[in-house]
Design goal:
The complex is a heterodimer of chains A (334) and B (289). With 334 residues, chain A is mostly helical. Chain A has helices at residues 10-35, 41-59, 63-84, 89-110, 115-122, 131-150, 152-160, 162-167, 172-191, 199-213, 217-242, 250-278; strands at residues 308-311, 314-319, 322-327, 330-333. Chain A folds into 2 domains: 4-275, Orthogonal Bundle (ABC transporter involved in vitamin B12 uptake, BtuC), CATH 1.10.3470.10; 288-334, no CATH class. Chain A has a 4-stranded antiparallel β-sheet, with no helix packed on it. The termini of chain A are far apart. The relative contact order of chain A is 0.13. Chain B has one domain: 3-Layer(aba) Sandwich (Rossmann fold), CATH 3.40.50.300. Chain B is 25% helix and 21% strand. Chain B has 8 helices and 10 strands. Chain B has helices at 3-6, 11-15, 68-75, 119-124, 139-151, 167-180, 197-212, 251-256; strands at residues 30-39, 42-52, 57-61, 83-88, 91-92, 102-105, 185-189, 216-220, 233-238, 241-246. A 6-stranded mixed β-sheet of chain B has the order 6-7-8-3-9-10, sandwiched between helices. The chains are: A mainly alpha (334), B alpha/beta (289). At the A-B interface, α1, α4, α7, α8 and α11 of A face β6, α4 and α6 of B.
């Protein structure tokens, strides 16, 4: 069987669709979590969802549904603790993380299932997705995308300044709970793709990648979705291609591909940011004493290589800690 | 202090005749009656009476910890009242629904979040009070954002990233955000704190343009600086009570109406007057009346 033959297989097609949907949903809600500086909330919800999966294994109910239920409950609980719990909120969150993971492993044991069963949920098992799972994933993704993109003005206002949003008449707590619930839902969407322990990567890494290049929130959000899709579909294809030689799981491949994209854009982001700092106009301050340098052999100009920074009605050339402005035959030190 | 000192009836009005104001006070933008606010059980505001009338510019002065910020946070519904009542535009606070009429500039809040955003996006978020759910940005939204940027003099910076601006410019963006909602009452909590003089002047110009249009402004300030000519009335807070309410004071006089800074508690967070909790689940009980 060749590499291209793989794409004719049903399970591969289902896996591709699931990966694409995950790549869309996770970064969309992840952008709002990063905006609120809650990048690790997704990780916490993922840990709590392990208990949900275990409960499904124990009771014989669908682990996906019990995971959604427990993840949503956990997300709401975390949000309430964070809202009320002042500075020690992160400790309370940590308690929930570890409780969720330990509870999940313990209950899986009680259910008589081995670590291998749990591993499918912890690190993803794209290749064992049923068509029912694909429909489930598609439905949840549609809900997440419609709500996140449709309410993005409100969610942005709440995420960037809760006090202001509340005085503007928004129900801040309801929106915060909605964000937490949507995060929980997209985590269970991503559970089959990258697994609960790596899920937060798909919520955060595409956003971090996108904001290296983007300057606006909108561009960051859309860019993160593009990066997320590229990483999840690309990672799946890459792992399928590599699997002819070595045993490669799709989940880690997707996450590492996303990280590689971040690593590639990071130097560009550093350069863009330092350039925008360097080229920011100097403030116009009246009556600063300026002196003329005695002699300056270099002639500044359009292509002289020194940053030309706007300063009021003229341009200052910056080099070696000087700001030189043309004044007749010489340069003034501004 | 006698009870008469803390009542506002007529003190500010007598000094500045304002013919456009009718005799009916029922729809004054903000009226506080015997308001007490407790944070974590400790009384911070005690028996505050204050009426802000339409078109008035009122400054709240006083040392750190005197309750200025608590007062505006109670006024905007961010803090529950322990006693008394607040009415906005004649409606008691719990029933008040026209929040788009109130613009708020929070204290020392950072304009930058974890994700980059442009000046236009941040100012645009000031429209949320007027937007309907699941609707795209309307032409009126865009116009209001451009107008607000124009008032604070940052129209040429609309496409800049917010983190590219200086602190003073960011403060002006936050004021533009409040203006984008086209409020009738603007509440600013220490907008000049840590802002350099040129930016303070730009702030004063923006507020002057609003005042010309008939907006009501409540301004918490540590120092008035270039805002002084705008002020119609000063209210000096001291230890959670109104110590002076009347014609504008200069900074020097205001500083002498209370003893030297005897209450230097850091102000800002909602729980600043309360000892911090030491256990993650030991949160403060917030009782609503």
């Amino acid at each position: 069987m060749s590499f291209l033959d793989l794409f004719a297989l049903d399970f591969m097609q289902r896996a591709l669709v699931a990966a694409l949907l995950t790549g869309l949903a996770a970064p969309a809600i992840g952008t709002f979590l990063v905006q609120r500086r809650l990048a690790l909330l997704g990780d916490g919800i993922g840990h709590v969802a392990v208990t949900g999966v275990a409960l499904g294994l124990l009771t014989g109910a669908s682990p996906t549904w019990t995971a959604v239920l427990v993840a949503v409950l956990g997300a709401v609980l975390m949000e309430l603790i964070r809202e009320r719990g002042h500075t020690n909120g992160d400790v309370a969150l940590a308690l929930l993380f570890y409780g969720g993971l330990a509870g999940g492993v313990l209950i899986t044991g009680i259910a008589g299932q081995g670590a291998a069963t749990l591993q499918a949920y912890l690190f993803g098992s794209l290749n064992s997705i049923s068509s029912e799972d694909v429909w489930f994933t598609a439905g949840l993704t549609a809900v997440v995308l419609v709500v996140t993109l449709g309410l993005s003005p409100q969610l942005f206002a709440v995420a960037s300044d809760p006090d202001f949003a509340r005085v503007a008449g928004l129900r801040v707590r309801a929106y915060n709970l909605l964000t937490a619930v949507l995060a929980a839902v997209s985590i269970t969407v991503a559970m089959r793709t990258v697994g609960l322990l790596l899920v937060s990567a798909l919520m955060v890494v595409p956003v971090a990648t996108s904001q290296q290049l983007a300057r606006s929130f909108r561009a960051t959000l859309l860019g993160a979705m593009v990066v997320g899709c590229t990483a999840s579909v690309g990672g799946l294809v890459l792992s399928a291609w590599l699997s002819f030689r070595v045993s490669v799981a799709p989940g880690p491949t997707i996450v590492l591909l996303a990280l590689a994209m971040f690593t590639a854009t990071w130097p560009i982001g550093v350069w863009l940011r330092s350039r925008s700092r360097l080229m920011a106009p100097f403030p116009e301050v009246s009556a600063t004493p300026h002196r003329s340098p005695v002699e300056h052999p270099h002639e500044h100009g359009r292509d002289c290589g020194h940053p030309a920074v706007p300063h009021g009605d003229h341009v200052d050339y910056v080099h070696d800690g000087h700001r030189h402005a043309v004044h007749g035959e010489h340069y003034d030190e501004h | 202090m006698t009870p008469a000192d803390s009542t506002t009836a007529g003190t500010g009005a007598g000094s500045q005749p304002r013919p456009e104001r009718g005799p009916d006070r029922g729809t004054d933008p903000a009226v506080l009656e015997r308001v007490s606010v407790a944070i974590g059980g400790r009384p911070i505001l005690r028996d505050v009476d204050l009426a802000v009338r339409t078109g008035e510019t009122v400054t709240l002065l006083g040392p750190n910890g005197s309750g200025k910020s608590t007062l505006v946070r109670a006024l905007t519904g961010l803090l529950p009242l322990a006693r008394g009542s607040v009415r906005l535009f004649g409606t008691p606070l719990p029933d008040f629904e026209h929040w788009h009429r109130v613009g708020f500039v929070p204290q020392r809040s950072s304009a930058t979040g974890g994700v980059p955003a442009t000046v236009r996006e941040v100012v645009g978020s000031g429209r949320v009070g007027r937007r309907r759910l699941l609707r795209p940005t309307s032409r009126a939204d865009r116009r209001a954002v451009e107008a607000a940027l124009d008032v604070v003099g940052l129209a040429d910076r609309a496409a800049y990233g917010i983190s590219q601006l200086s602190g003073g410019q960011q403060q002006r963006v936050l004021i533009a955000r409040a203006l984008a909602g086209e409020p009738d009452l603007l509440v600013l909590d220490e907008p000049t704190a840590g802002v350099d003089l040129p930016n303070q002047r730009a702030l004063a110009e923006a507020l002057a343009r609003l005042k010309e249009r008939g907006a009501t402004i409540v301004l918490v300030a540590h120092e008035i600086g270039p805002m002084a000519p705008l002020v119609d009335r000063s209210v000096v807070m001291r230890d959670g009570r109104v110590a002076y309410d009347g014609p504008p004071l200069t900074q020097e006089v205001a500083a002498h109406t209370h003893h030297a800074h005897d209450l230097e508690a850091p102000e800002g967070d909602a729980h600043d007057h309360v000892p911090h909790v030491s256990s993650p689940f030991d949160w403060e009980r917030r009782t609503r009346p």
